[in-house]
Design goal:
heterodimer; A: 434 residues; alpha/beta; nine-stranded mixed sheet; globular; B: 264 residues; Rossmann fold; four-stranded antiparallel sheet; 12 strands; binds adenosine-5'-triphosphate; binds magnesium ion; nucleotide-binding (chain B); AAA+_ATPase (chain B); ATP-binding (chain B)
Chain lengths: 434, 264
């Protein structure tokens, strides 16, 4: 009897899953998606052309140890953090959770540990609510090859006061795909502040595929902030997906500070009655890179509120595209969709786009948008320089002011300061060639 | 002692609508030393702000002839930030608003721009100096925590210009209508601030429409500007004469052929 040709990497994926002692459901899900992903369509984003990027040029999965990698170039600062997870490649190098929180049932651990210790709980939410595994080619790809990430679970009625902090470091000291999956679940009437950081060590060209799911149950409130700093040699797909039940609230504040080509698929579904999402994005692009950011909020429930605010700065020959998609479906009466996307261009070679897209299928709603692509205000520059501040610094001040209304939304001062410093560094680099 | 000289300065602006160059300053001569306060008065549209912007180095104003020198060295090739670091300051008639940049961080950046990278002003020293100046100007802490000029009232903006002046301690300060829009108490406070700067190492050129300001900041010299030129100079009594007779009086005394905007 003729055996059917094995799907590429089928046994490697099985072996990888077995090496991590994964439950059967996850191995089976991986294998299903492995078979399925090549035929699925890539997600389509207005004006973002990334279809030819090597986002699925995967290498054979194998367990790799990155625990000895030197991280000093990143100046990570988590010594003081009470609740923290630090991973490098597939290796976990720090994990801490306040015992008082653990006693209340809070879970914060790397994904492999989570699926071993809480298989049913993870299974209940893993690609079931915020996004489906076969939603598109890149989601299915992530499911098949995921090799890192985290699980954060906040039980019903629990309020987590201190922020939960995740650092996910890509090991590019060698060829290794960086395929991360973070799952955040806030149960009914819980509250949590979570912040995460993606960064790269090493110069190797690698792909990154990051999916973050945030599931907020009735009356839950999640404050989510992120700083993404993948390297110049990394080509990335970053997907953040939120799903909100009745009267849930989700505040996103995200800094896209990557140095390479990245496409961002940022989506929030306001499913429950009265759900509310505030989405704040800042981005800086430099060099030759393209960051294409598609930010979408869908008002499904009645009286839901979705606000998008995106500010970005473009230097050198780079390109930045902001899509803001506000979609109010039929029946979502009394809902509100507002958005503002602004882009500032610092060089004549820069390319920028701010696309407001409002899709309104219901009459009884409020909606609005504002978008602009402009240059640094000359009058402001002159004023600052007339006090002795040099041109580049004055430019950075004006830019920081421009990005400020997003920065101030970041809940923890440490993350805010870190993002401010990252912006400053990225701007300084970008200004060198001018 | 430092010396600021304006020699036969001709300045033109480009009229955006017509694309034509229009001459505003038609040969201004002015010499001032630190330790001196000069006042310039003159009718609307005569070129007072233009003179201040041209000295400071606003790129919108084109010097077509003449020179501006600080201690004998021409400033014309220097951009505005270098002129500022060389010791010039301009309190603007219409200060810009910058959201997202706090007043306090802006002032610190301005001070540090004058210092070496390894000699930045210590935070405590800065705060003490700031508190002292806030006190003189009757300003509250929350004004400096706010974004630079954003949402400031007209009078608050003027006060904030003087606060910057006091923090930066330039050699020469040009104050363009620092008194306009101020109530009488604010006028006294702002004058107190400027007077606190007076000394052998500080000179100021004060542009005003009102003799009243000069009761509080008594100038050494008063200049009258008309139609892009300084047409008369004298002591403080010249300001009183202007107040009494108006610009038409001065013009007719001098036998000038200048049309004043508000003449019927
Ligand atoms: N940037 C500019 N573009 C075009 N015209 C200008 C510009 N700046 C000044 N002018 C013109 O130059 C002339 C002098 O203006 P300026 O502002 O210097 O007058 P001023 O003496 O300061 O008047 P005021 O007392 O009203 O402040 C005016 O006719 C004005 O319209
Ligand atoms: Mg003026």
């Amino acid at each position: 009897m003729e055996t059917q040709a094995e799907i590429e990497f089928q046994s490697a994926v099985s072996a990888f899953s077995a090496a991590h002692n994964e439950p059967d459901w996850l191995r089976d899900l991986r294998l299903t998606m492995l078979a399925k992903y090549p035929a699925l369509a890539l997600p389509v984003f207005e004006k973002i052309k990334y279809q030819r990027w090597p986002l699925t040029d995967v290498h054979e999965p194998a367990v790799q140890d990155s625990s000895a990698i030197d991280l000093s170039s990143l100046d990570l600062d988590y010594a003081e953090a009470k609740n923290v997870l630090v991973t490098v490649g597939e290796s976990v190098i720090a994990t801490r959770l306040d015992p008082a929180l653990a006693a209340q049932g809070v879970i914060f651990t790397d994904l492999f540990t989570a699926v071993r210790e809480h298989p049913d709980l993870v299974q209940k939410y893993f690609m079931t609510t915020a996004i489906k595994p076969d939603a598109n080619r890149l989601a299915a790809f992530n499911t098949a090859f995921v090799n890192g990430g985290a699980f954060l679970y906040v039980p019903k009625g629990v309020t987590v006061k201190d922020p939960i902090q995740g650092y996910y470091i890509q090991d590019s000291t060698r060829t290794q795909d960086f395929i991360q999956h973070v799952l955040v679940v806030a149960e009914t009437n819980s509250q949590v502040t979570y912040s995460e950081n993606y960064a790269t060590v090493g110069e190797q060209a690698n792909l990154a595929n990051v999916i973050v799911e945030v599931v907020a149950a009735d009356d839950a409130h999640v404050r989510f902030s992120a700083v993404d700093q993948l390297s110049k040699a990394t080509t990335g797909y970053v997907s953040r997906q939120g799903n909100l039940a009745n009267d849930a609230k989700l505040d996103w504040a995200v800094g896209m500070m990557n140095d390479g080509n990245v496409v961002v698929d940022f989506n929030t579904d306001l499913v429950g009655h009265g759900a509310h999402a505030e989405v704040k994005v800042v981005a800086v692009t430099t060099g030759e890179q393209l960051q294409g950011i598609d930010t979408r909020v869908t008002n499904l429930g009645q009286h839901t509120v979705g606000h998008i605010l995106q500010h970005g700065v473009i230097l050198e020959s780079s390109a930045l595209i902001f899509n803001g998609v506000g979609h109010i479906v039929k029946g979502a009466r009394g809902s509100d969709a507002q958005q503002e996307s602004r882009v500032l261009m610092l060089s004549t070679h820069a390319r920028g786009d701010a696309n407001p897209i409002l899709l309104i299928d219901e009459n009884d709603v409020t909606a609005g948008h504002a978008a602009s692509v402009g240059r640094v205000n000359e009058e402001q520059m002159y004023y600052l320089m007339s006090r002795g501040i040099d041109k580049k610094r004055a430019e950075r001040l004006v830019i920081r002011g421009f990005l400020g209304n997003v920065l101030t939304e970041i809940p923890t001062k440490r993350v805010r300061d870190q993002l401010t410093a990252t912006i400053e560094r990225k701007l300084e680099n970008g200004q060198k060639s001018e | 002692m430092s010396k600021l000289e304006v020699k036969n300065l001709h300045v033109a602006v480009v009229d955006e609508d017509k694309g034509l160059q229009k001459e505003i300053l038609k040969g201004v001569n002015l010499t001032m030393n630190t330790g001196e306060i000069h006042a310039i008065m003159g009718p609307n549209g005569t070129g007072k702000s233009t003179l201040s912007q041209a000295i400071m180095g606003n790129p919108a104003y084109k010097v077509t002839e003449g020179d501006v020198l600080l201690n004998g060295k021409s400033l014309l090739d220097l951009p505005v930030d270098e002129r500022a670091r060389a010791g010039l300051f301009l309190a603007m008639q219409y200060p810009a608003e910058i959201a997202g940049v706090t007043n306090v961080e802006f002032m610190r950046a301005a001070i540090n721009a004058r210092r070496a990278d390894d000699d930045q002003i210590p935070v405590l020293e800065f705060m003490k100096f700031l508190d002292k100046n806030l006190d003189i100007l009757d300003m509250t802490d929350d004004m400096v925590e706010r974004y630079l000029n954003e949402g400031f009232s007209g009078g608050e903006k003027k006060r904030n210009e003087i606060l910057q002046l006091m923090m930066i301690q330039p050699k020469f300060a040009i104050l363009d209508e620092i008194d306009s829009g101020l109530d009488i108490d604010a006028l006294k406070v702002v004058s107190k601030g400027v007077n606190s700067m007076r000394g052998a190492e500080f000179g100021s050129l004060i542009i005003t429409h009102y003799q009243r300001l000069l009761n509080y900041i008594v100038p050494d010299t008063v200049h009258v500007m008309m139609d892009g030129r300084i047409v008369e100079s004298g002591g403080p009594e010249l300001a009183e004469k202007l107040e009494a007779e108006g610009y038409a009086g001065v013009r007719d005394d001098l036998g000038l052929d200048v049309k004043l905007t508000d003449e019927i």
